Amino acid sequence: MHDARAADAAAAPAMAQGGGDTQATPAGLADALSEAEQRQVAELAKRDREVRAHEMAHVAAGAGLVTRGASYTYQTGPDGQRYAIGGEVGIDTSPGRTPEETLAKAERIRAAALAPAEPSGQDRQVAAQAARMANDARLEIARREFAQGDTGAEATRDGAVDRGMRAAQAYSEGLAPRQAPTLSASA
């Protein structure tokens, strides 16, 4: 079982790891902040909302595959509050017990990786890895069907051969160095 993680977080001063949510800026403190600091707080609050929505999209689409809920990387704003600027979700990317199970799981992994409105580069890499996993499963299914010498109608045999050829082509096109899977919000 793989535990896929990444934290594509912006490098920024005053970063801290851990839990906690942002809170509204106290009215008195907001008046004490300069315009530039108020803009920075607004940008951090916006980023916090985007990161949390991004990670929750992964969690919702990856139901049953998520090995660990969302965790966040934080930056402390000029108002003293912590804002999420990056995050990650653990996901099981192990193959299934059968090629059919692997194919179904790969499609769910891909859907979870691409669930956010704006998938990060890391999310796209996970989706590509899931596509390779699906192609491998399709190839195995096609090989098995071909080896069984389907004795049904000619169209069925031709269909198995066609699927096998398409799977082999997709497999060879999908060969690329594999990277560890991750689902994350990017900075």
* End-to-end CA span: 28 Å
Question: Could you state the order of secondary-structure elements as H and E?
Answer: EHHEEHHHE
Numbering strands along the chain, what is their spatial order in the largest sheet? Answer: 1-2-3-4
Radius of gyration: 22 Å
Number of helices in the DSSP assignment: 5
Q: How would you describe this protein?
A:
By secondary structure, the chain is of the alpha+beta class. 51% of the residues lie in helices and 14% in strands. It is built from five helices and four strands; from the N terminus they run βααββαααβ. The protein has helices at residues 27-32, 35-61, 99-113, 121-147, 154-173; strands spanning 15-17, 66-76, 82-91, 183-185. Strands 1-2-3-4 form a four-stranded antiparallel β-sheet. Strand 2 and strand 3 form a beta hairpin. The longest helix is centred in the first third of the chain and has 27 residues, at 35-61. It starts with 14 loop residues before the first strand and ends with a strand.
What's the quick description here?
This protein is an alpha+beta fold and 187 residues long.
How is the topology of this model organized?
Elements: E1 15-17, H1 27-32, H2 35-61, E2 66-76, E3 82-91, H3 99-113, H4 121-147, H5 154-173, E4 183-185
Antiparallel strand pairs: 1-2, 2-3, 3-4
